[in-house]
Amino acid sequence: MVPVYYYGIPIIVGDFLRKLDVPQKPYSYAVLNCGGTTANAGGQIRRLFPLDAEFGVVTVDNYVPMYKTASDEEKQARLDKAELAIEEITRRIKERTPGVFNDCKGLLPRLVTGAVYPLYKYGRKTGKFTVNDSCTGCGLCEKICPRQAIKLENESPVWTAPQCETCLGCLHRCPSAAINYGKKSAGNGRYLNPRVEF
To answer: What is the mean pLDDT for each group of 10 consecutive residues in the chain (198 residues)?
Structure first.
């Protein structure tokens, strides 16, 4: 499952696909996970690695630098719908069904990705991260960062790279909600899927 960032794929996923060398190509598929639409994220993958199938699943939008998290009822409704979609996706994968089964691309997917994705690709500035006084120095943010862009110094996280994935794992999983990204995230809530063990 690949998360969709700014209507495209995370930089780290593209880096992985560029290095991927598969001598005998198996049945290959991508399941794109988004909070609204995937736009042309699947096309980005196909340019780097041939796919037999593409799927899309809408779950809960957790980009709190821009949006408030949904109500508990809305979250549960989205997760229920996503689980049904995943059951159908699982069936097609087991049957090795080829095709594009992504009905959440939205309007003008190539145009949308082309216009918005560069904001992510050339953005991702770690300078927007801040830490408030509720930080306990537990070090979880440093441990889970996929880019190793966080180091604990004097029991407080410091971003040591100019860019990261902006996956916001550090922000959402901080047990004391001490990490923020930009000016709005502090008041927009936090989200962890209650149906997944972390």
So the answer is: 97 96 89 97 96 97 95 96 97 97 97 98 96 97 97 96 97 97 95 90
For helices 11-19 and 41-48, the axis angle rounded to 10 degrees is 20
Domain with CATH 3.30.70.20 in the chain: 126-187
CA angle, 171 then 177 then 182, to 5°? 55
Q: How many other C-beta atoms lie within 10 A of the C-beta of residue 191? A: 19
> Tokens 């997917």 map to which residue?
109
Question: Is CATH 3.30.450.20 the classification given to domain 126-187?
Answer: no
| End-to-end CA, the chain | 16
Maximum Cα–Cα distance for the chain, whole Å? 53
Give the separation between CA 71 and CA 53, rounded to whole angstroms. Answer: 33
